[in-house]
Amino acid sequence: MTKRDPFKYFKTSRDIIRLAVMLYVRFPLSLRNVEDLLHERGIDVSHEAVRYWWHRFGPLFAAEIKKHRVAGMKSSRWRWHLDEMFVKINGERHYLWRAVDHEGEILESFVTKTRDKKAALKFLKKAMRKHGRPDVIVTDRLRSYGAALKEIGNAEKQETGRWLNNRAENSHLPFRRRERAMLRFRRLRSLQKFAAVHASVYNLFNSERSLYSRSNFKLNRAAALAEWRGLCMA
């Protein structure tokens, strides 16, 4: 059975659609910024077209990236870093929970209205269902983590410390920059959708250039771009 082409019936080139979605998700740009950048390249599209493409293809691209990467992420079970950040939706505080492995790979993003034991438990079960149970779980001193881990029988794996969880806290920074460019979110569903897509795209292009020589960084960047250009190929 042949795979259905998601770009069928679209008059715009699939390469332009991929480029527009990548610019919008990866960089702290508004829809109109993306429209202007494409115009500089001789591509005439409206910001509403970019919005539609992002909503239509963003989740598809993210799902394919995650499918390719999850199979090779067994080492991510060694150590997880968990942290939560607050995000305002129409002036109301919500919480974006993140699970990050020891290399900075974002494993799971999950939005809740509270940060109590019930929310932490739901987040942990969702992450472990997809990625298995880690050997070590690093958290801050939020009591919800300890209560949730105790209920699922992983309390002995928890570690807390003043600087131990910097890996998770630093992973919030790219999303914060992106959030400011979008002038915040208006619906919980939109936040959950964008957080999931942004995490997958960030994982693909995050080369941690400070740890590599210039030549290796260029190879990794080229490989990531080649993988992106091959997404959703018919």
Structure description:
This protein is of the alpha/beta class. The protein contains 8 helices and 5 strands, in the order H-H-H-E-E-E-H-E-H-E-H-H-H. Helix 2 (31-40) packs across helix 3 (47-70).
Average residue pLDDT? 90
The helix count comes to 8
Structural class: alpha/beta
How large is the radius of gyration?
A: 19 Å
Give the H and E element order. HHHEEEHEHEHHH
Total number of strands: 5
Helix content: 40-55%
Order of strands across the biggest sheet? 3-2-1-4-5
| Low-confidence parts | none
Shape: globular
Strand % is: 5-15%
- Distance between the amino and carboxyl termini: 12 Å
User: What does the largest sheet look like?
Assistant: 5 strands, mixed
